Fold each of these.
Amino acid sequence: MAVLFFYTASVPDYWIGIDQGSTATKACLMNRRGQMRRVVSAPVATRRPAPGLVEHDAEALYRSVRLVLGGILRGVSPHHVRAIGLACQRSTCLFWDARTGRPLTPALSWQDRRGEALCATLCEHAGSIAGKTGLRLNPHYAASKARWLLDRSPDLRRRAERGAARFGTLDSFLLFRMTRGQAWSTDPTHAARTLLMDLSRLDWDSSLLELFRIPPRALPPIRPSAFPAGIVRIGGTRVRLAATLGDQQAALIGVGGTAHGAMVLNYGTGAFAALNTGARPQRVPGLLTSVAWSTEKETRYILEGTVNSAGSALAWIRGLTEPPAQPRYPLDLSRLPILIPALAGLAAPHWRADTGAAIFDLHLSSSSRELEAATLAGIACRVREIVDRMEERGNRPRRILVSGGLARSTDLLRLQANLLGRPIFPVLGEQATARGAALLARDGGKGGAPGDGLRHASSQAIRPAGSRESARDYFRRFESRMKLLLSDLSPASDEVS
């Protein structure tokens, strides 16, 4: 377990934010001014028993949460903790015993694709599923995973039908265990990722439950993201668990993307673009509509787009050269190759899992430095495709915030600003997901946006520099090469992305 100390201050009130992710569970201790005083991290293991199968030991995930809770409070009285916020992997799910809380299945990761064959059989329902949920029929979401588990265990199905086995995304399992079985619920940001929630009503949809053959008695009630979900005992102290939400939504709050029109670009293994659309959900072809967060008084929505390969594409291209080549700036975009970073398929707005990466316009004079620069430019072009799709329907971002590990690359950010033709603002600090969970736990019951009044982003914007015509021409070349790549594929099967 890793512990990072910032500085110690005698502040009586703290909030804890927990970020349960694919590779680690993290917790932050936040004071009343929104400042992080301590961060604790514990690694978690991922199992890949066969191609397309990705899972976790659910009991080990719960132990990691207890471990970071203990670490974050070392030297701090639990009496000074006002509330806890919990953020989780959104589509990771499992079944567990309704009485003991013992996992009955592994926790199937959001990356797991064992429901792919089932999704292919339901393609005729893809349109109605998207209409109700705001998402695409996709094996990454929890419904097909639940059906896969139920179809392979008649005993599990019998137990689920009578309420003896419970099913849910990871937040509902951790809530059940952290409260010693006294609380069981989920929130709309997680429930949406099951493909079983009606986005207009924020409740389970009976026709979708019937379509996927999921017993209603196995599912938790859906409560607001900011809600007194239960009581966690830490030593002899009772602490409220006051917020649960998905990891990307927590990151949106943690970096300050809570105003209507704010966009957050989060660069990591993949890249994630989220536009806060305020109190009204917006539907745009090729993008996803979901809940940003909810309270007992209001619900906020986001438009989402994903790029499957960002940091992973950069690591791949660097692995081809020894030693890794660093681009030299400024770049001559007219000579730069086009690299489409589709190592894990194309997500928004194309949704083609049946393609891979492609490189165009290579020459004998092309260098390894130019290949790395083309990879960064390809990531930036894919993000621009998503932003353009949003703007085509009148959803222009008012302010663009950038975060994530890959956002440390000023080269990427300069390319992104040039290709978007507008300034972008790097976010200050790290651990945005844990911080966002803590902020929602602190502010969710007050009305207004969580974290209002805090300074999240640098005032030093990264602005477009160099020739705008050169950036425009490069993006046009990228678009033409993307059309070539897509033209070689078989006709799209619209349901699986």
Amino acid sequence: MSGPDAETEPSSVVQLLRGSRPLRALFSARVISYTGDSLSLVTLMLHVANSTGQGLAVALLLLVGDFVPSLLGPLAGAISDRFDLRKVMITCEIVQGVVMLLIALTLPPLPFLLALVGVRAVASQVFQPASRSAVPAMVGGRDLEVANSAVGFGSNCAEAFGPLLAAAMLPFLGIRGVLLIDAASFLLSAVILTATKPMSPEPDPDNLALSAQARVGLSYILRTPAVRILSLGFCAVVAFNGIDDVALVLLAKEELKSGDSSVGLLLGAVGIGLLIGYALLSRFSAKASMPALLIAGFFVSSAGNFLTGLAWSVVAAFTVQATRGLGLAGMDVASSTILQRIVPPKLLGRVFGNLYGAIGVAAALSYIGGGLLLDLAGARVTFLVAGVSGTVCTLLVALVLPRAIRKHR
């Protein structure tokens, strides 16, 4: 798989979306399916909470939907490298649409619901490395930053406004109605993705089994310094900072003595920062150094949590968390662009699959370790420890990553 030839000057986001029909299709498909995904997350959480009355049931729903599929990251990436990316993405969307249709029509008991949610989550896990690996085949090398920023902006807009749409729709459509809309969003996304071109992988001369291909991908990451440092650094920053959502709830209620509306405001701050960050990057990222942007993103994300631990008011905490969102956008765009440039196309899906699978595991570890620290020391100390630890990891990455990337080239 090889992308179009690089242009002499990077395109603007509007030029890129107008000029590349495959990228426009991927952008539209991700916006639609991510909107539906956000709708179903809120709807299923409410359904499980109302039907079981158990917080544990809601936790199991989130565990099956988020953490368990991340363990299959190596295999998910191997699928992307083994089959045509267009077919992989379309198949994943169809599977998710059919599963959500079954859930909407049957509203099954909790064990069967968890099984269906798990199937949908695995399809989503496979879709992620496939969609990120497809971008270099759709645009020239100099446009990767802008393309990644545009796709990230669209996806995060969908994730930000999806819960609001769910809140508006539920009183009129009910649980089944909203879930049916989610099913339709996945199927519509699959139709839109037919506008992309076939993206067949390079033939595997060794004809390895899927599990063996997954091991090859993991071995490549471990023996390639630039990719290994980026992956370990990203996972370490997430492991130390991923507890922020839970800690924000306790910070607002126990430390800042605020109500539920303040909690919602703080939880939405990062999303606002992400949208602003992607919007800025879609315009200016082509002029930035991607290693520098990645390191800056790590630093802003970590330092933002440290400063949140020192916040004296909801407004101060909101401002700092919104600034963190800018850093998270930089981390996403820079990491994707660096990997798309330095990893051989035949291994790109496996690298993305391993990376985002490992990030999911790191987030789970953050919830466990951070939760224990929250109970022992409170929200402020948790934010301070998270921020300091993430900043130390950032400094270590800054010392070794730029040189590793130069040597790789």
